[in-house]
Design goal:
The protein is α+β, with helices and mostly antiparallel strands and 329 residues long. The chain is built from six helices and 17 strands. The longest helix is centred in the middle third of the chain and has 12 residues.
């Protein structure tokens, strides 16, 4: 008769960072293990599974810079993101970062309307294969792309890289370069749109505007340069200098060059009538069935090594076909 031996619970050790000086032990641990709630760590501390500098600690004990905290995870994560097998491209990966080439049509994270089938679900499945405990590694979202925008997006694997990279995005120290195929032939080789963007008056909350009646408008600036002029279209490179929702789409539409396939923003920045799935309408463009916008390059200082990194996301086939078709018109 054979007997099975239970696997020992995984044990991890972390060092208290300066910015977490003085927090409670449960607050420290949920930073490092995002799949757990503070309540779960309180239970494990009461069970004697958490030590500070080798000494079993109480559930409400505080930690200080430089201390060593060890925890034996006798319970599974309780904030598990359902993993889903969804294909996505990997541009770069190390122990702290995962740079993904997000496909068009994939929303970044679950929402009320789309609770599953997101990039986060896909990445969770990928990270679960790297860990002995499912849900232990949890993708940290730093920024977002629109569902129908493809291209480079950064996710973090640990709390410190997530915090430091988030600060870079908040302080606008990240360089982002997009490619957009637009309606019309742009005359200037380069130009800048410096128009505040806010919520579109009288429209769905997710729609934005650079018109004078935009609500809660904030300064917004985007630099553009022509990559290639075609008969009826232009391929442009866009570099947003601020981080407003739909910024590139709104700025291009407002100055008369809406992005090919954009179902929301028309010439002059007008909001197009809402299209419902059961309307049986013709595609917005014959060239591509989504907005022709791709996050081509993402560059920033690595949050841990501080090396300047530039990540290039390959143009997807549908965008490439749209360019080829525009050249043929």
């Amino acid at each position: 008769m054979s007997t099975s031996v239970a696997k020992p619970s995984p044990k991890f050790t972390v060092t208290v960072d300066k910015y977490l000086h003085g927090v409670r032990i449960d607050s420290l641990l949920v930073k490092h293990f995002r799949g757990y709630t503070p309540w779960r760590f309180l239970r494990m501390a009461r069970a004697g599974q958490v030590t500070i500098d080798g000494v079993v600690c109480g559930p409400t004990q505080r930690v200080f810079t430089g201390q060593t905290v060890s925890v034996t995870l006798i319970e599974p994560p309780d904030l598990q993101m359902p993993p889903e097998q969804i294909d996505f491209g990997i541009v770069f990966e190390d122990q702290w970062l995962l740079i993904v080439n997000k496909p068009a049509g994939l929303i970044v994270h679950p929402t009320g309307e789309i609770p599953a089938g997101t990039l986060v679900n896909a990445v969770q499945s990928y990270l679960d294969k790297q860990s002995s405990l499912k849900g232990l590694l949890r993708p940290g979202i730093v920024h977002r792309l629109d569902m129908d925008t493809s291209g480079a997006i950064a996710l973090c694997k640990d709390h410190l890289s997530h915090r430091l990279l988030s600060i870079q995005f908040q302080r606008e120290r990240v360089s982002k370069t997009y490619l957009a195929l637009v309606e019309g032939v742009v005359t200037d080789d380069s130009f800048t749109v410096d128009l505040p963007i806010g919520r579109a008056a009288g429209c769905h909350a997710a729609l934005m505007s650079a018109q004078a009646d935009a609500l809660e408008a904030q300064p917004s600036k985007t630099s553009f340069e022509v990559v290639e002029r075609l008969a009826k279209h232009t391929l442009v490179r866009a570099r947003p200098r601020s981080g407003r929702m739909h910024q590139i789409r709104v700025h291009l539409a407002t100055v008369g060059y809406p992005i090919v396939g954009d179902e929301f923003y028309g010439p002059g920045g007008v909001i197009l009538p809402r299209r419902l799935p059961d309307d049986n309408l013709e595609p917005v463009s014959e060239l591509i069935d989504r907005q022709a916008l791709h996050a081509a390059v993402l560059a920033f200082a690595h949050p841990i090594t501080n090396d300047w990194c530039e990540f290039n996301a390959q143009l997807p086939p549908d965008f490439d076909r749209a360019i080829q078709a525009a050249r043929a018109t």
